[in-house]
Every structure is written in structure tokens, then in C-alpha cells.
């Protein structure tokens, strides 16, 4: 019986999340009402409130789940090897493809800028640790270099998501790592 309840809870939360993400594709969270989310999910408001305190609680839980997944992915790779950096980036991009609707919405103009900042800071933290520990002579510039790489990468990913994922995750991963590792030199004649 408890697994049936668990399935219903999972279904309810998934329906609320999906409805919320669909509405966020059209307008910012400040313009969305709980009533709209519940109507789209075909769930009553009291059920919504049994799971979440408000829309921001729902949004935070969605974002926290993504941050946790990304952190686990980033923690499982060794950044000292270029091939592994490409593989890690490709794995992250595949995660975004798998969660395309949420990813596209959260990284869009209707997404929460604080979430985007959290993602950037997470990537920055992992990258800065690599730059400081493995390239001691870069420690002074490591923070600037990391911010440059992370912000550029986030914007490349946003552009890729916004334009319908025309390139494969591997192609975008190779582009990001090439730009991070060698700058524009591979693209100049």
C-alpha cells in the first residue's frame, strides 16, 4: 500500500512541476498563480499546499534537485585531463537534454536569475579548485579565469538550449573545452 501512496505522491509532484514549467515558458514566476498551476495539472489547491508552501517553494525544490544532480556529476570527474573535461561537459549537456523542458525554462529569460547564478557558482567552485591545485602559477588569476570560462560556458549553453539543441552534446562539449583550454587560437587562420 505504501508504494501506491509513494507513486501517487510522485505523480502529483511531477504533474505540478510539469505544469509549473509549462507556465514558466510563457511568463515569469511572478505572473503565475497557484490556481493556474493546479488547473493545468488537474490537481486541487489543497493538494498543492500539502506538498509546497507556495510557488517559490516548488521552484526552489526543482532548482535544488537540478543543483544536486549537477554537483554530483561535477564531483565525479578529474579535471586535469582534457578528455575527462570533455566527457564531464558532455555528461552535463546530456543531463540538460534529458531534462530539456526544465533546463530550457530555468535558463530562459523567465528563469530565476538566482538559479542561474547558483549554477555558475557551482561550476566556478569546481573549476577554481582545479585551477588552484593543478596550476599553482595561475592562483592569482584563477578566479578571473574561472569566472570568464564559467560565464562564457553558461551563455553558450543558453544559446544552444534556446536554438533547439541543433548540435549534439558532444559537439558543444568539445567547443566549450576547446575555448576554455585554447581560446580562439584553434579558430583563427
Automatic annotation (TrEMBL):
Q: Mind telling me what this protein is named?
A: Transcriptional regulator
Task: Please give one Gene Ontology molecular function term for this protein.
Answer: DNA binding
- What PANTHER family does its record include? ACREF/ENVCD OPERON REPRESSOR-RELATED, TETR-FAMILY TRANSCRIPTIONAL REGULATOR
Q: Which UniProt keywords apply?
A: DNA-binding, Repressor
Annotated organism of origin: Halalkalibacter akibai (strain ATCC 43226 / DSM 21942 / CIP 109018 / JCM 9157 / 1139)
Keyword Glycoprotein appears in the UniProt entry = no
Q: Which residues bind DNA?
A: 33-52
Q: Name one Pfam family in it.
A: TetR_C_8
Q: Which PROSITE patterns match?
A: HTH_TETR_2 (PS50977)
Does this entry carry the keyword rRNA-binding? no
Q: Which domain of life is it from?
A: Bacteria
Q: Which residues form the HTH tetR-type domain?
A: 10-70
InterPro entries hit by this protein? Homeodomain-like_sf, HTH-type_Tx_Regulator, HTH_TetR, TetR_C_Firmicutes
